[in-house]
Amino acid sequence: MDRYQGKKIAVVGLGVSNIAVVSYLLRHDIKKLSLFDTRTNPPYAEEVPGGVDFNLGPLNVELLKTYDMLVVSPGLSINMPEIKAAEAAGAEIVGDIELFAHEVKAPVVAITGSNGKSTVTALTGYMMEKAGLNTAIGANFGNAVFDILSDRVQTYVLELSSFELETTSSLNIDAAVMLNVSEDHLDRYDGSIEKYAEAKRRIFKNCKRIIVNRDDPRTMPKEKAEKSRIFASFGLDNSEYGREVTENTTYLCVNGKRVLDARDLIICGVHNELNALAAMALADAMNIPREVQIQALKTFTGLEHRCQLVRILEGVSFYNDSKATNVASAEAAITGLSPRHKEGIILLAGGIGKGQDFTPLKRYLGKEISRMYCFGRDADKLLALDKKRCVGVMNMRQAIRQAFAESRDGQAILLSPACASFDQFKGFDERGRVFVNLVNNLISRDDLTSS
């Protein structure tokens, strides 16, 4: 029997993922399908098929309580009073991944973590494609899952956020990795990093082969049954999937055996070496040949807005790491680039801090970071780290121009904001595109001093 037959279903939150859900649900014999959004003019509204009941503005609690199922957008907290009231009245609370779980037939590989998710997702998918598998990549990175659902797909590679995992309980996963846990989205988790980690560990619930970060205890399963399904670990040292650091280079290794010289990677930095190891572990769990993995590792160019070299001008390298929306991600970029830039890094940071503690950045000031230009809503919190080396500016354009004016040959100017972007931009991708455009329009330091 169709699990949706005769039910009243409310799709709450009009984002890309739920637009795809609406189209999917319309193919079923549903008693009533309604769409709710707290915004009066939400994006993608024009893409909703005709005949769907629309409810815009503040959520009507009494109305929501009349539905059998709520499909909640990952952008909305399931702890909202209106959602909790509907749940208490008997409504099933799910997300698009949970609905997808009941439809998917091909093997699923899943990736979660605070940082590196998109890179590992893209790299793992690239390995699968190199092996000749018809591979679909989606969820939090790429396409909505109902836009990639197809009988022709042989493997799904999904990036899953903590928000998506909160509403997922039935997804059978062939191999999954939890990369790391650091302060992020604490405004959603009552300031508790453990609650945030617990949401991410839901990825292990129905997973056959589990991969963890042995350097991060929060990535370890808590349940005995889940611990028994650990397939491998990756980390900084030279055990299992690990690294052998020599005087001249670093090797990626498996069980102590050298697999690849890290200098052969196009993506750079220790964090990307760990990303590569995690992808190798996933590929091994899915029986992808080692030679295919190596070919993929040597040709994978990385993703936009992730420590992306934009330009070298007058000896200064400009990097777009706009995707660094938390402190740990910015730290990864700093430590990854500092060996290449002994003259120092000028950091551009700021935006919406999401309740994070910025103190960890302080250790780099006066060492790897020669100066930090701070902008955006929470700039004051960054400025408080070091009144001498942190400089407040109005916006990113001013930060770029002042940083370039004071830079010297061999230095890097790094946009790695450690914050969300929604105070001044539509998203991290727009922030990155603006950065790239501004950098590409620079002419010379002389031009700055004369203008």
Question: Tags for this entry?
Answer:
16 helices; alpha/beta; six-stranded parallel beta sheet; six-stranded mixed beta sheet; Protein-Tyrosine Phosphatase, Chain A; UDP-N-acetylmuramoyl-L-alanine:D-glutamate ligase; 451 residues; 22% strand; Rossmann fold
Structure description:
The protein has 451 residues and is an alpha/beta fold. It folds into 3 domains: 8-94, Rossmann fold, CATH 3.40.50; 99-299, Mur-like, catalytic domain (UDP-N-acetylmuramoyl-L-alanine:D-glutamate ligase, 3-Layer(aba) Sandwich); 308-441, Mur ligase, C-terminal domain (Protein-Tyrosine Phosphatase, Chain A). Helices cover 30% and strands 22% of the residues. It is built from 16 helices and 20 strands. The protein has helices at 16-25, 61-64, 81-88, 96-101, 117-130, 145-148, 162-166, 193-200, 224-227, 270-285, 290-299, 327-337, 379-383, 396-406, 428-440, 445-450, and strands spanning 8-12, 32-37, 53-56, 69-72, 92-94, 108-112, 135-139, 155-159, 173-178, 207-213, 230-234, 241-245, 250-254, 257-261, 308-313, 316-320, 345-349, 369-374, 390-392, 412-415. The strands form 4 sheets. The chain has a 6-stranded parallel sheet, with helices on one face. β9 (173-178), α8 (193-200) and β10 (207-213) form a beta-alpha-beta unit. The longest helix has 16 residues, at 270-285. The termini are far apart. The mean pLDDT is 93.
- Which range does the strand content fall in? 15-25%
CATH superfamily of the largest domain: Mur-like, catalytic domain
CATH class of the largest domain: Alpha Beta
Task: Walk across the major sheet and give the strand order.
Answer: 7-8-6-9-10-11
Rg for CA atoms:
23 Å
3D shape: globular
Q: Briefly note the structural class of the backbone.
A: alpha/beta
Largest sheet: 6 strands, parallel
Number of extended strands: 20
CATH topology name of the largest domain: UDP-N-acetylmuramoyl-L-alanine:D-glutamate ligase
Indicate how many domains the architecture comprises: 3
Mean pLDDT across all amino acids: 93
Low-confidence stretches: none
> What is the second-level CATH architecture of the largest domain?
3-Layer(aba) Sandwich
Q: Helix count? A: 16
* Amino- and carboxy-terminal Cα gap: 71 Å
Percentage of residues in helical conformation: 25-40%
